[in-house]
Structures are given as structure tokens and as C-alpha cells.
Amino acid sequence: MSRHAALNKFGRSGNPALSAGFGGTQAAYGNSFAMAERMTLAGTVGKTMVLLGCCVTAAFYGWNNTALVFPAAIAGLIVAAVTIAKKQWAGTTAPLYAGLQGVLLGGITATYEAQFPGIGVQAIGLTFGILFALLVCYMSGMIKPTENFKLMIASATGGIFLLYMASFVLGFFDINIGFIHSGGLLGIGFSMFVVGIAALNLVLDFDFIEEGVEAGLPKHMEWFGAFSLMVTLVWLYLEILRLLSKLRSR
User: Which residues fall within 8 angstroms of residue 13, CB to CB, at 6 or more apart?
Assistant: First the structure.
């Protein structure tokens, strides 16, 4: 695939972290791709491991300081927005984002663990199990991120985001969208659907990283690729945690 085609492909990704601003990537860097050190698969994998390490380390702190969940969530959103807007800063902002998400996940997991002992280990196992299973499916060609596939995942992801936002806003007026939090069959079915969509976003992350390497994107895009993968993994873990809590509350 040509570099121009690959860059156009990025702009149609379903992951918000991947789709924002890729249309201008080629214009921003132009022929500097040929001169600058380029993105590699090994480099992206290594940086992903660094981010996971930051997240896990911070999670231990969050576990013992659950009051920091809300501040970490707000700060994480701000850092994520900065990372998306300034991809060249990802080497600094991505580890900071991973640490903040670690505090968030540690605090949330501790809260769930107090009610459902062992749920954290189950959620972690399922998250990484899904990650590796989809990676194998992607590498073997069993799942191919076609344009229709991307459109479907992007639409579903956007719909879920809007539904969550509506639920958040309506909550201020004591109006609840019951099935989002319900432990009934409808609520469990909804959570299973969201887990499925979150998991399939991993395929878009894999595709972005592969195409970025082929397109010869700048070296800092390794950090951005790792950041994008981390965004999806955090979302997937939280949705699995929510699903497991619904199943165990029945």
C-alpha cells in the first residue's frame, strides 16, 4: 500500500484516538518521513510495554487511594486530548496518561473487589486473553479490517459514546437509562455488546500500527500507537469489569 493510501486509511479509523487529525498528517510532515527516524513495529511494542508498566505500577497506588479516582479520570481525559492534538508530544504525555489511568483503574477495581472478591483478576485475565486472541486472529488474517468493518465499528463506538453521555447528563435530572447499569438480561446483553465493540477496536489499533510502519510515519508515532492501544485496553477492561459485576450480582 502506498504511503498516501495508508495515511488516508488512518483517517477512517473507528478509534477516536486514531481518527482525530490523521487527514493532516501527511501535510504536516511531508517528505520529512524520508529523513526522520521512522516508526517500527518493535519500537511500538516496546513502548506499549512501557505504558502497561506505568499503568500497573500506578494501579497499586490507586488501589490504596480510591479518592483519587475522579481527579485521575478528569486529568486523564485532558492528557488524552492533548496527546491526540499534539501527537509529537506523545513520548511525554502517553506515559503520563498511562499512569493516570492506572490510578483510575486501581481505585475502581478496589471498589468492585470489595463487593465481588476476585473480580479484578478475572477482568485482567479476560482483557489480556481477548487482546492476544484478537492479535492472533488479525495476524492470521481471520479478521480483516475492511472499510465496511471500520465503518461498522466506528458507528457502534460513536453510538455507545453518545448513549453514555446522554446517561451522564440525564443523571443530573435523576433520569436513569436503566439497562446501562441493570443486572438483568437486557443490562447483561448490553454490556456484552459493548465489550464486543471495545474488543474489535483492538483490531483497528493493530491495523493502524501496521499501516503506520508501512507508511514510514515519524518515530514519535510509536508512542502514539501505543497510546491508542492503551486507550482501547482501558475501555475494554472497564467494560469487562462492569459485565462481570452484573453477572455476579444475579
Answer: 19, 22, 150, 154, 204, 207, 208
Beta partners for residue 247, in sequence order: none
Residue whose cell numbers read 491508542: 228
DSSP annotation of 184: S
Q: Grid coordinates in use for 131?
A: 487482546
CA distance 10 to 158: 17
Q: Are 93 and 83 in contact (CB under 8 A)?
A: yes
Q: pLDDT tens across 27-66, in order?
A: 444 444 444 589 999 999 999 999 999 999 999 999 999 9
* pLDDT tens sequence across 176-211: 887 788 888 999 999 999 999 999 999 999 999 999
- Picking from 5, 10, 12, 48, the residue whose alpha carbon sits closest to that of residue 158 is 12
pTM reported for the whole predicted model: 0.86
Residue carrying C-alpha cell 486473553: 129
Residue recorded with cell 486472541? 133
Determine how many CB atoms are found less than 10 A away from the CB of residue 180.
17
